[in-house]
Amino acid sequence: MRNLFIRRPVFSAVISIVIVLLGLFSVTRLAVESYPPLTPPEIQVQAVYPGATAQDVADAVAAPIEQQLSGMEGLLYFKSANSSDGVMNLSVYFDVSRNPDLAAVDVQNQIARAQPQLPQEVVRNGIVVQKRQTAFLVVLALSSDDPRYDTEYLNNYAKIYIDDELKRLPGVGDASTFGQLDFSMLLSLDPDHMAQLGLTVSDVAAAVQEQNATNPAGRIGREPAPPGTQLTIPVITSGRLKEASDFERIIVRGRPDGSLVHLSDIGEARLGARNYDLAGRFDGAPTALTPVFLRPGANALQVKREVVTRMTELAKNFPPGVRWSIAFDTTPYVTASINEVVKTLFEALLLVTLVVFVFLQSWRATLIPVVAVPVSITGAFFGMQVLGFSVNLLTLFGLVLAIGIVVDDAIVVIENVERIMAEDRVPPAVAADRAMRQVSRALISIVLVLCSVFIPVAFLGGITGLMYKQFAITIAVSVVLSGIVALTLTPALCAVLLRPVPEGATAVAESGPVAKAFNRFFGRFNRGFRAVTERYLGAAGRVIDRPRTFFAAFAVAVALLLVLVRSVPTGFIPSEDKGYFGMLVELPDNASRQRTEAVVKQVEGFLLKQPAINHVVSLVGLNFIQNANQTNAAIMFVMLKPWDDRTTPRDQFATVLGGVNGFLFQLQQTRGFAFNLPEIIGLGTTAGLELNLQDRGVNDITRFAGLTGEFAGDANALPELRGVYPTIRVNTPQLFVQVDREKVKALGISLSELFQTLQASLSTLYINDFNRYGKTYRVQAEAQSRFRQTPEDIGRLYVRGPNQQMVPVSALTRTEFRAGPSVITRFNGFTSSLVVGAPAPGKSSGEMLAAVERLAQDKYASRGVGYAYSGQSYQERASGGQGGLVFALGLVMVFLVLAAQYESWTIPFAVLLGVPFGTLGALFGVWLRGMANDVYVQIGLIVVVGLAAKNAILIVEFANELRAQGRSIREAALEAGRERLRPILMTSFAFILGVTPLLTSSGAGAASRHSIGTGVFFGMLVATLVGVFFIPLFFVAIRSLSERGLVRPGAQGAIPQPTPVAVEGD
Hints:
Elements: H1 2-7, H2 9-27, E1 42-48, H3 54-66, E2 75-83, E3 87-94, H4 100-114, H5 120-125, E4 128-131, E5 136-144, H6 151-161, H7 163-167, E6 172-175, E7 183-189, H8 191-196, H9 201-211, E8 218-220, E9 233-235, H10 244-248, E10 251-254, E11 260-262, H11 263-266, E12 267-273, E13 279-282, E14 285-286, E15 288-294, H12 300-315, E16 322-329, H13 331-360, H14 363-386, H15 393-424, H16 428-454, H17 462-487, H18 489-497, H19 513-545, H20 547-567, E17 580-586, H21 593-608, E18 613-623, E19 628-640, H22 653-666, E20 671-675, E21 689-695, H23 701-716, E22 721-726, E23 732-739, H24 741-746, H25 751-762, E24 765-772, E25 775-783, E26 798-800, E27 806-808, E28 813-820, E29 823-827, E30 830-839, H26 845-860, E31 865-869, H27 871-878, H28 882-902, H29 907-912, H30 915-928, H31 935-964, H32 969-1000, H33 1006-1043, H34 1049-1052
Parallel strand pairs: 7-25
Antiparallel strand pairs: 1-3, 1-4, 2-3, 2-29, 5-15, 5-16, 6-15, 7-12, 8-9, 10-11, 13-14, 13-18, 17-19, 17-20, 18-19, 21-30, 21-31, 22-30, 23-28, 24-25, 26-27, 29-30
């Protein structure tokens, strides 16, 4: 088969061309995103209990539902936020492998089981269960300078004419305009007039339900009909009302004198909004905001283009003066980070080519790997499409490292062909044939070993397992294709392109000053390399001759490795400058939305004056951290200018973030902080600490809140943390209405009537629906605003007694101010407090989590306070053992493959004993640069294991052949080292220089590139410079033990005899 590809170079070329074409076809069809879908499926449940307090919602709504959730398949955790506006937001998180649709069905079924325990008002308002889309793409802003088009109008225009259009675009997961400004027919009632007329809220609700209804009548002439019936005519009656004037004409009651009481006599109807507690702002002006989410697996850049195209079409029909813009955009980071990696890809290819040229010293020889590498890299895109991967940072990192790996196979073949041509003085075709007989087995071993390292990680679970999979399988595909190219195209190109160099001839045969300069350089390089080789042989011989000394040195290296494993801090994913960050602003408890918006305007003014900031998006009335609606809170998203426009130190991400936090700290009666968003959108709320302290025995929310505050203070005093912030607040002023139930019942008044009056007057009462613009909206009753401004207004409400007399609520109740929580959060069924924070400068997230755990266990566990992680912190702790498992699995698989390849249980140890040097170098480099042992470093360790084993295989394989030919074990080891030193150094330095751009890169995604580049650079540097001296020693020791009978022959197995070397003319 080897001769076939050398004899038929066109056939060999066609194989590679087909691989390239398949890759080019696939790359245009792959999704482009920063990360593959990694976020755990999240199912959101929302229920509304109008007028209820946070404690009411937690006890009556959240607790019954949460009791049914435990035990669901793939459940990770659940948490709820129960706010004083009567809303429960429950988030249920599942393992990343769980089907989101099936998870939503499971949650729906569990809620159905809890439904009999829920208040009827909650059930009537509807319990919404939906899959939450977490892949944030863009936020669109709809605005106008025309006063006719206020925020309420713009929000509803977007909901009616834009949202559904965007949802229908391919790749869009969801698009819903922010806020609850949906149209609503608001019936604003005057309690004084109602009391004078003896009317209650129930009377109004009954009248509306009766007169605002769909009343189907039927058809004239419907079958069965008399013979000769010619027509069937539908009968239409008045149905749902449409205009505010129609609702004002609703008859509430008839008087004894025959006159009628209309709704307009006791209030007014107007077309308003369902809820005014939330507001959107863009660059300091009110606006309608529409977040657009990406469907899993969709191409982020393509979907954005589709959104822009569709919005441009829709804008042609906008009312005059209404315009749209992109307020917040995550795709610049995707584009910039991927462009940076692609740039690194080409830089790596250039540096690899340079190293190959220096070693091979021939443009013809250099051309062969330069052709072979793109075939493997381009073909990998076809494998990515078949496996359902996307073009993302992980797969591109895999391709960057693959450049330095796949070039190895071509170099091994070329170097061997040139050596045989020089030593045996044979033509290129014959040399290629002989070379393939010598190195084919090694090439196959290298491919199998590398695949055995990379492929098993595809079977790991969780988020880190998916990250390993995307990276490792991409490299594995490239390695397999590289092996195919090395066995087919490379020998054919060697036979066609290479030319014998006559003895004494210069490396570059052309004349001229450039050629002379190259010849001088190559002459010096070759003389230097020969000297290095001789010194290497002498040093390797001394290492072999002093086994005790150097095995002791090896033991010291292993001990240092264990020390580094324990001392290098751990992490999850490096925190990046993504070109945007988030902010939370909180005012004192019970601050109104108007007051909050005034502070937000002040913050916006400061932000928009900063030279590094481009846009500011504000969501007033939303506490993003707790996922709850609060009028005293606002979340803000800040877009920075492009990375190329932020070159000065003051415009760097950390500096901008610090300046914003400094400004927030100076604000009076305002608490706020700016924070980096998670690296994987949807994986929690912040890129730092997410700790949920749980009440597991305190049983008093006020005392529990005090303990969480104490915990935050202790945590801030630790050197590993900064900015620790508890979210629980239990001192919110609340007006407690104590109902005298005995008096109420003694007067024959219905308690439900009393509470319904309070709800309708101080909140809203959902009565039924009406239709407008082809949509369905709510009809809601409420008291006019002047009747709900002070506590005394409660006493001005009335309920009706059994004798039709109106009784003031003040006669049935008493009021007093109390302190209580505005939001109650629960985590896994326990009352909880979310604690957020960040690692201190110079500290890793792993050190931060370890410090928090020590504090929680040592000081607070005995006081009834438990803890649990969520978001990115949860994933980091869940992935804690994955790195070691991957490393161990890689070693085991390498051992098994080599054992099968060599039919020996001992020879693989000669290969594996060189791996610790690479691991030691990788962790030493990470420690030296003050970095953390994160997922990217662990991914790099997989590569180091494979490449360190590859280097050892080149020596051990050839030494085995020489030993089988009768050479002594020592002589075979040293000769193998001499013959393989050049290809080992060439391939290793090609890889090392190929990953150098990862260490020195800047711009978007630089932290991730530094993390993965540092490990593989230092790992391969140490594995190469130290390993080449120890591999001969390990071979001599293992082979000697085997041949002395210290290992049973049956277990040892036979070393396969090498294929006879062909002579010229075979």
